[in-house]
Amino acid sequence: MVNTTKFKINNLNIWFGAIHPLKEVNMQIFPNEILSIIGPSNSGKTTFLRMLNRLNELQDNFKMTGFVEYDKKDIRNIDVEFLRRKVGTVFALPLPLPLSIFENVAYGVRMYGGRNKKELELIVEEALKKAYIWEEVKDRLQESAFKLSGGQQQRLCIARTLAVEPDVILFDEPCSGLDPISTAKVEEAMLKLKQNYTIVLVTNNVKQAARVGDRTAFFLSGELIELDKTDKIFTAPADVRTDGYIRGKFG
Amino acid sequence: MFRKAKEFIIEKLIQVCGLASIFFVVVIFLFLLKEGLAVFKIVTPLNFLFGKSWYPISDPAQLGILPLICGSLLVTLGAAIISIPIGVACAIYIAEIAPSKTKEVLKAGVELLAAIPSVVLGFIGMVTLVPWVKNIFHLPTGLTALSGSIMLAFMAMPTIVSIAEDALYSVPKSYKEGAFALGATHWQTIHRVMLPAASSGILAAVMLGIGRVIGETMAVMMITGNAAVIPHSLLQPVRTLTATIAAEMGEAVVGSEHYFALFAIGIVLFIISFAINVTADLFLHRENR
Amino acid sequence: MRNTKRTQKIAFFFLFLATLLVVVPVGMIVVIIVQKGIPAINWQFLTDVPRQGMRSGGIFPAIIGTLYLVGGAIIFALPIGLLAAIYLSEYSKENFLSRIIKLAIVNLAGVPSVVYGLFGLALFVVFCKFGASILAGSLTLGIMILPIIITTSREALESVPYSFREVSLSLGASKWQTIRHIVLPNAIPGILTGTILGLGRAAGETAPILFTVAAFYLPRLPKSIFDQAMALPYHLYVISTQVPNVDEKIRYGTALVLLTLVLFMNLVAIIIRYKFRKKKKW
């Protein structure tokens, strides 16, 4: 791997009022890898993910210490709209906006402005293709996005994120509401996307982490316990707690 | 960059408008003070509030609003006695007893009442209620405090019913289920559990209803007879604070003693409504906690 | 046991009776006005000016005057009220300031209507020198309906799910873009409902326009916003109490037109609310 880092996280602490969901986290995220993050609920996984594109600060009582660097720049010094475009999110539940399929994908691009109708159509088609949903929706682009099935909605949300040309995609338990077949399609999409994007995947499904992750991080009670190659974590973890969690002893 | 500038301006505008309601409350009060305080160069505040005669256009003008305060109090008291039990009972019926279809109809009826302009209710009061009162009590005129009380009680209903109903509705279901589980009948549950639990909300409903009554103008002016004397019974004509302003401001010369005095009455009304609303709000918030 | 059952029956009977005492008169009022007002309604009544000291002729100038006043009030109150609602729902935090703002709104809603009239007189008629005019009356009514518009719009904005905002922001949209393109379009039915309720309220109020706009008898249409105007509620007041020997029919007819106007607006608001509640996409 070339000596570059996408994200560098140093001594990161986060508070929401009196709650302290992330404690002294240090890690690096490399380009074009899939980093899986596992851990029991309330271990700080989602808070960590939402830190990477500054979604945490939407809450009133948010406080942080330490720093997060994206492409060697402190994210607090990056224009937040630019950062969020570059670091896209796919949420746990499929959350289409109350717009047509086409407008859902075009939304982020439109907000940025400066594209004509033709370009917009191309971008939407491209994004839908990359998310492996184009064939299913190409004839019904003007229909409401709520008419799609759960799995289709989730792939639409991936397309929507891709349309604004990010280089990092954050997946927050993207398959928690999906059946096994839809899950397989989303995972397939992730593996292909890895060639062009950096992917951070938070999942409650340990097997999913094992299937798609290049590296895997284990969080417990707001602390990063262990981070290593996925093979290593699943065959010979250094920490007994990681071992216990993977074997399903708690969580 | 142009977009950012535009958004900056819009967001500033939003913040300014966010403060608009505070601004208007303050401006209303200031303008009432500006025009009304001048009256205290002519009468002392004590003589203004407790003076027994209101002859604003005699010379020298007598500017005691005690008869008007008594008029307002009497009409309000009458309205409260009628509207509180009936209003709360109606709220209980709608919230607890009525089947859901009936409930929708009853709620629509109450909403309809809230929508009818007060001048229309005043007109209807004049042509129906006033003759009834006259005939039933064999009075020379039906334009009395009693007519006003009945009409105002009616006009306070939408406020009392809807807020009290909300209060009953927001009592946690578990209270009710607990009472049922102990073998209480529906009625026992309502008056031993639901009513006490919703009491502060119901109190707020009653206060806001009374606030509505004190501030009501047109209907009162049309059916209470407008005699500015201290009333001795509900069957006499009275004049309220609000009706005095409405009836006399048209003739008062801007900048005259009379004009100042009417604004001073406005100050009194503003302070009363402010006190009622703040207190009711405190009760409603206590409910929420 | 029998005793408690009987107590319950009696109690419920009285509750039912109380409810009838509230609801039945409402129905009766509407029926009486419709029944006695309908004979007065004809084309001439609706389109002619009042004649013979308001004892015959029509009420056209009063209808038009009311429409002008209501229109003016909404032009003033809707933008301010909507922006204030956006502030409360999207920008303000739970703190002392927002508490004070909410209290101010409650108070604004509770100020007696005749005090609004005094205020309008002092500020717009005298201080701003607009004179008794449509402008002064519209502004007074506008401030009066501000709390209705703010409260209903705010509820409408807050009922848009939070997740939509988060999705929009996560795609790199700015806060204002999120409000403009996601929150507002989905809150429009609620905002519309509030606006129409405000219109209905403004159309029916008399006390705020008594000294700010109303002309006792002006048998022509207003020429500009600085002109006086007749208005339906004031006209009804005048012909009911100030002018002797007006035909009952004309009074009931005027009451019917006013009531119809106000109830029609309320009905529209209810229908909008009902339709969109059913159609909600999330």
Give the topology, please.
The complex is a heterotrimer of chains A (about 250), B (about 290) and C (about 280).
Chain A: E1 7-16, E2 19-29, E3 34-38, H1 45-51, E4 62-70, E5 73-74, H2 80-86, E6 87-90, H3 101-112, H4 117-130, H5 134-137, H6 150-163, E7 168-172, H7 180-193, E8 198-202, H8 206-212, E9 215-220, E10 223-229, H9 230-235, H10 240-246
Parallel strand pairs in A: 3-8, 3-9, 6-7, 7-8
Antiparallel strand pairs in A: 1-2, 1-4, 4-5, 9-10
Chain B: H1 2-18, H2 20-36, H3 45-50, E1 54-55, E2 62-63, H4 66-97, H5 100-115, H6 118-137, H7 145-169, H8 173-181, H9 186-197, H10 199-215, H11 218-223, H12 241-248, H13 257-288
Antiparallel strand pairs in B: 1-2
Chain C: H1 2-37, H2 43-47, E1 50-51, E2 56-57, H3 60-91, H4 96-110, H5 113-127, H6 134-158, H7 162-170, H8 175-204, H9 207-210, H10 232-242, H11 248-279
Helix pairs in contact in C: 1-11, 3-6, 3-8, 4-6, 5-6, 6-8, 7-8, 8-11, 10-11
Describe this structure in words.
The complex is a heterotrimer of chains A (251), B (289) and C (282). Chain A has 251 residues and is α/β, with parallel strands linked by helices. Chain A has 10 helices and 10 strands. The mean pLDDT of chain A is 90. Chain B has one domain (45-288): MetI-like (MetI-like fold), CATH 1.10.3720.10. A two-stranded antiparallel sheet of chain B has the order 1-2. Chain B starts with a helix and ends with a helix. In chain B, helix 5 crosses helix 7. Chain B has 289 residues and is an all-alpha fold. The mean pLDDT of chain C is 90. The interface between B and C is large, with 88 and 86 residues.
- Tally of DSSP β-strands of chain A: 10
The succession of helices and strands of chain A, N to C, reads EEEHEEHEHHHHEHEHEEHH
Unreliable spans of chain B = none
Give the helix proportion of chain A (percent range).
25-40%
What is the total number of structural domains of chain B?
Answer: 1
Low-confidence stretches of chain A: none
Strands of the largest sheet of chain B, in order across it? 1-2
C-alpha end-to-end distance of chain B: 45 Å
Tell me the distance between the termini of chain A. 33 Å
- Major pleated sheet of chain A: 6 strands, mixed
What portion of residues of chain A belong to β-strands?
25-35%
CATH architecture group name of chain B: Orthogonal Bundle
Main sheet of chain B, how many strands, which sense, barrel?
2 strands, antiparallel
What is the largest interface, and how many residues per chain?
A: B-C, 88 and 86 residues
